[in-house]
Amino acid sequence: MSSLMKLVQTETRLFVRDPTSLIVGLVLPTLILVGLGAVPMLREPSPDMDGIRFIDYFMPSLIVMSVGVVGLTNLPSIMATYRERGILRRMRTTPMHPGNLLLAQLTVNLGAALAATVLVVATGRIVYGVPLPEHALGFTAAFILGIAAVFSIGMLVAALAPTTRAATGIASMLFMAVMFFGGVYLPRFMLPDAIARIGEYVPPGVQTLLDSWNGEAPAAAQLLAMGATAVVAGVLAARMFKWE
């Protein structure tokens, strides 16, 4: 077994053993879905949303939460903790390059974000009959670019934050902004037009997810914005990341 795979297994065990990471990172969006589904009126077609049920409309926002909670809260704080405790510095004295730890963390957290997304979508489908994305190709493209943008921003926070506390504070502010623009705190149809418009370009791009969910092709400009964010933030994170 390669050293990278051993690291991935170790980081996966650490993730699973941490109740906060496991509950907040994997289960929280599904718990919110179940809570919303317990309200009868949210399972009925709404004239304010062209006959769509609120629980169907809100699914892309729960996907935003699934991605954001892992990429913007878990990933930056863990990498900052490893740096602050000297774990990365000590790894540089071993044959294993500390970059492998970074790659292992990305792998584990990406897997967690995917698992959280699958769990919330599957629960919505099985329990409440929430339809699956009607434009599968568009949804796939939007999800991949959106998650890449969020994780790149998370790594940029990990690269710049000097301490775990700083990483947690910065990541928390970014997470709250993403949740606000993503329609988690307040449904997007209730937001002012200007705010909703800005939210279309805020990673992971809830509007692209919503459009593809309803059978429309995501707007190219919004997909390009997600891709550009992923590239710019990723390059900056790679250049500015400090191992000590």
Automatic annotation (TrEMBL):
A single GO cellular-component term on record: ATP-binding cassette (ABC) transporter complex
Matches recorded under InterPro entries: ABC-2_transporter, ABC2_TM, ABC_2_transport
Coiled-coil region list: none
Membrane spanning residue stretches: 21-42, 62-82, 102-124, 136-159, 166-186, 219-238
Keyword Transmembrane helix: yes
GO biological process, one term: response to antibiotic
Domain ABC-2 type transporter transmembrane: 6-194
Main location: membrane
Name of this chain's protein: ABC-2 type transport system permease protein
Lineage: Bacteria, Bacillati, Actinomycetota, Actinomycetes, Glycomycetales
